[in-house]
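Re: weekly structure request thread

Next one in the queue (180 aa):
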Amino acid sequence: MPELDRDTARDWIDRWDRQQEESLPDREDRFTALIDAVEEGTGRPDPLVLDLGCGPGSLAVRLLDRLPRATVIGIDADPVSLTLGRAAYSGRPGLRLLDLDLRVPGWSGQLGLSRPADAAVSTTALHWLYERDLRAMYAELATVLRPGGLLLNGDHFNLDAEESPVLARLAIGPAAQPAA
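Done, posted below.
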């Protein structure tokens, strides 16, 4: 396979972002809300952030644009997305993109963390996981987040209200819940 140059990779990522915005018109607002929460909620100018299901790094680079002293470790198992991200953002200070499958136990041991993560973020990625895999991933994630660390997921889920009543209730939001 020929090497992918930076400009071509960024062009493909721009196309990807535009396509994503067509199906999720509030995507940039989700990114902004997550970054606002990381900035305010971690209490540090140099947070260590895990981007779960990072794709080509769209959220990660926006986070680094706002918080240039942050370290963002993007985690994904899609070779195309990772190839695009690595070509587009190679050498970007604070960014590492890792080929890890969040469904495979032990993924967190391959992060090479120098300290516990301050936050984990994700958008439009984790809904692809089966609930059992998501639960296991969250349990493993808890082992690498610092006490009081943030888990910020700007995704959407279709949850079974019988199997996960609390999560299903939270997913519909307070406006749609019956009054107490």
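Residues 6-23 form the longest helix (18 residues). The chain has a mean pLDDT of 87.
Next request, please.
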